[in-house]
Amino acid sequence: MSLPAADRAREMWSRLAGSPAGFPGPGDAGVVVSPESSLCPPGWSGMVELDGAILAVVPRPDLVDGVRARLLALLGDGDGAGAGLSRLAVGEVLGPAELAYLDETDFRPAGVEVERLPSGHGDVEALLASVPEADAAESGLERTESPVYVLRDGSRVVAASAYRTWVETAAHLCVLTADPHRGRGLARAVASAAVADALADGLLPQWRARPAASRRVAAALGFRRHGEQLSVRDLAAALV
Asked: Which of 5, 154, 166, 212 is the most buried (most CB within 10 A)?
């Protein structure tokens, strides 16, 4: 029997951070020195909060004590959960983004038949080109590895979903719907097919999102929020 989604997520983030001690327990914070960590851009600091615990990577040893003290204070302010990493968002940041995961028993498939296309298909590229650059980047569809599940309006693809694999553990879901077709359940339909594909491959479905509409799609499929992620270029400024 596979581990619960939350445990698999903690193991994955520990590997990304290069943490020899693993993910800390509830109410605790761990800090790892790793200038080239996969958890955040090179030279940045990155933090992940999961179920009332925080794991952070920093680029320099002199940041460790101050960062850990600040993270423990955040956990205390949040009564051990929902630490509010956004309070560290000083200067240039990426996030915070909500992290949600799915146990197979919680999956609520949409039950809609969708079309399967290979990664990099021209019709998916046309969808990406038809939306604002920021929307295309937010979707992550330009960097997927799995088949792409789509719905069409006539001949045009108007909704698509796929995933890319993180450290052989998580299927990071990517979803995009053309603006005139949003709010009709299309994102849920295509994402449902991608999630089913990921589960069949033994992967952990991961939904990382900032927009409220995206989070609602995740919740409709059965994803549960477990925490958030934030990356900061100059974390020293947030410690002042």
From this structure: 5
pTM attached to this predicted model: 0.90
How many Å apart are CA 24 and CA 55, to the nearest integer?
7
pLDDT band at 239 (very low <50, low <70, confident <90, very high): low
Q: What is the DSSP string of 4-33?
A: PHHHHHHHHHHHHHT-TT-SPPTT-EEEEE
Contact between 71 and 83 under an 8 Å Cβ cutoff? The reply is yes
What contacts 107, CB < 8 A, 6 or more positions away? 195, 196, 199, 221, 222
Share of the chain above pLDDT 70, in %: 93
**Composition of the chain by helix, strand, coil, percent to 5:** 35, 30, 35
Would you give the end-to-end CA distance of the chain in angstroms? 46
Nearest residue to 49 (alpha-carbon basis) of 119, 121, 98:
98
Beta bridge partners of 32: 57
DSSP readout, 91-116? SSEEEEEEEEE--GGG--------EE
Tokens representing 20? 């020899």
Is the four-CA dihedral 168, 170, 176, 177 of positive or negative sign?
A: positive
| Integer Cα distance of 228 and 96 in angstroms | 6
Grade residue 81 by pLDDT with cuts at 50, 70 and 90.
very low
Number of other CB atoms surrounding residue 45 within 10 Å: 28
φ/ψ of 217, rounded to 5, equals: -60, -45
